[in-house]
Amino acid sequence: MAQQFNAQNIKKRISILVFLKGSTAPLVLYVENPEELYAELQQAIKSATAKLIEKETQGPLKKVSFVSNQIAAVAIQEEQYAG
Where would you tag: which of 10, 39, 48, 77 has the fewest CB atoms within 10 A of its CB? Predict the structure, then answer.
């Protein structure tokens, strides 16, 4: 039997998508302050110096590392889920 959801059960969460060069799927990062991470990653893309970026996240990925010069793009995604 299909479970019924009403509008009160629908919640929103925001994630940061990090598209890495040569990768087919983005990293999906759930963090405390997504706007701050988005701005930090934008600055890393603009920088001529490559640096290691390591972040602890709240989603399925608990810790992630990548090199800033491998970032092709970043995005903010808002998704709805039943909770």
Answer: 48
Taking the C-alpha atoms of residue 80 and residue 66, their distance in angstroms, rounded to an integer, is 27
Structure tokens at 6: 């009403």
How far, in Å, are 23, 29, 51, 63 from residue 14 at the CA level? 22, 9, 25, 18
Q: Find, among 5, 17, 8, the residue nearest to 79 by Cα.
A: 17
C-alpha span between 79 and 59 (Å, rounded):
13
> Quick one: which H or E segment has residue 13?
strand 10-20
Dist CA 7 CA 16 (whole Å): 25
CA distance 57 to 4: 31
H helices present in 5-72, as ranges: 34-46
Mean pLDDT confidence for 58-81: 95
Local structure of residue 22 (DSSP, 8 states): T
